Amino acid sequence: MEKKEISLQAVEKKKKIEQNSSSTHSLTESSFLNHSNNTFSSKRSGKRVLLYIFLVCFLPVVLAYATYFTRFFEGRNNYGTLIEPQRDIPHLQESSTLAGDPFDIKKLKGKWILFQVAASRCDEPCQMLMFYQRQIRTSTGKERDRIERVVFIVDDGPIETMLLRQFEGVHFVRTNAQQLKQWLPLPQTDISDLALQKHVFVADPLGHVMMRFPANPDPARMRKDISKLLWTSKIG
What we know:
Radius of gyration: 35 Å
Strand order of the largest sheet: 1-7-6-3-4-5-2
Shape: globular
Largest sheet: 7 strands, mixed
Number of strands: 7
């Protein structure tokens, strides 16, 4: 009888040990699953944060770029001639400032650029184009810092000091006329050597030459186009 009681006690003790072992295993498995779920949730949360950062930082740029291409080109009621396909601003060899320092127009990338081609003896029509550009930039008010002006000088002659003072802030750059002619598109009706000096060109902040104003331009209509470009696009 006593042996049976001892045997029963042993069995019950064994059952308790097995139950405790089972409970410990279940707890360990549960902890592992919880840890795995937390790790998975953390990864998903991290991805959401990265996506949010991307949207905050880059989406405005994408939208601005899209707006520029949709709003401005829609309707085609612009005054200047749109250059299609647009031309990338190249690296112009042998380009230098009036002081003889190397000049790379690509350093102005990120700005709207108005530029023209001129001889060192800038005559009245040449100065008038520069005057139009200065007035257009000034008239944009707080937006004027988004615009840069460049005048390419295609000979080695001296430039009058009064001209430099009158158009302060313009980048005067000496360069080769032939490479400008290969780069800048002209109307088929006038491809003479002097044709480049009759037009004002526009480059966007992405580094594309995208518009050419006609010879003897109407400054009011030029201003309208430039203002529309600045308004429709927040790039640059």
